């Protein structure tokens, strides 16, 4: 077994929105196959596909009705096999989403389970009796609003769902559930996939007794108290590793909500045989405010630097980081952490530099390599995502004006990441009306434009990805943050026996001064977003300038 995933860059594909080959308005697997040459040109090593299984799509595929079947909207199993084969021919690996904290309520397991207490699937989910007054078994809220419990008259019981009521939680305490999941994982791995991204895997073990959460926690996430990093989560993952993962040369990345860097070590320390890496959320929480994620708050660069540094330091010897700015649940990184107006291109390149030079495996979310920004939908009726739709209602009932809500949705809705990928003229995703509206920015920000412009974010990302292949220090060098008092420039060093890198990233829209450390005077510039030449002394960084300087140890 090798740890090829440490050297890889992963590209995330949101299949519904990537490329529609049969012109029904929904992206599909043949659409991905068509675009393999594009992905090869970018140079990515692994594709992570969001769920493509049969699903009623209440939560866009994170509600799986049949783990063994491909959603016909996306194609057939043969299409998927063809994708695997053609990607592998190009040395591109494929990982799938593994969603096993919960299923769809249309899954056969749940349909059986809800019928009664004495069938094979009765104990597959988390059922509890009502309290004496008929109310819910505990006070947990669910992520998409309302209680985490729904009552089923046939069983005269409630079932637990940490997400929508159509997403009942599986009962991992039940050995049979675990074995059923492992069998399904083997099926896909035997088919040739190269690993899994594991949806909310930190939530699979619930605290015994499902205790009430303290009253002061935000209702929609108070279940973290009894469900995140629960008492058996590591035991379950070690079992999964022993029974399945250790038999395959695969990448595993756990989505670990509510997990600290100390806890992440437990998930990713190779000696513990659990996961390759986890997705952390600390940097995603820096701009939360009064309405949690749905607040109009800007992050502070010093907080970002502290968080990223904490994770780099903690996992230095005992684990591995995954690195990301954006995914299908987050707004676009350029809007959130950069400047999506005048310096969109410069700041997108700067953010790419900061992330790709860190220690860990970088993830690129589709469109990030174009510097896509959040979507200026004209109307709130353009939103499709269950979370956004529920939130719009909640903010309306909190008395916010339509204008305020529009601004917040622009900054935070998951749909910012889910609009169709802008191909040729910006609308080349499909000849049909897409399932979700295009971004009106597509005319200026699209693949065709990017490929024809040598200064585009695309070519810069390609170079960042290539550097990883030619400079081992990017993979194994120790990370050291520098100048921690600087409020505009995020500056760090990477170092192994052969080489040192100095990474300089300005978060300022104004020019700022920066003093190069002596040992990097006039050394080679590996990459920079303003074509900077070797330099020394104090320099003036341009808006959102990024520079990587290399010094070979002689
Ligand atoms: C995390 C996924 O990324 C998100 O899209 C989904 O809504 C929840 N987990 C529930 O599966």
UniProtKB/TrEMBL annotation:
It is an enzyme of class 3 (hydrolase). InterPro entries: GH, GH13_cat_dom, Glyco_hydro_b, O16G_dom_2. One of its GO terms (biological process) is oligosaccharide catabolic process. Its EC number is 3.2.1.10. One of its GO terms (molecular function) is oligo-1,6-glucosidase activity. CDD domains: AmyAc_SI_OligoGlu_DGase. Belongs to the glycosyl hydrolase 13 family. This is Alpha amylase, catalytic domain protein. It comes from Ligilactobacillus ruminis ATCC 25644. The gene is malL2.
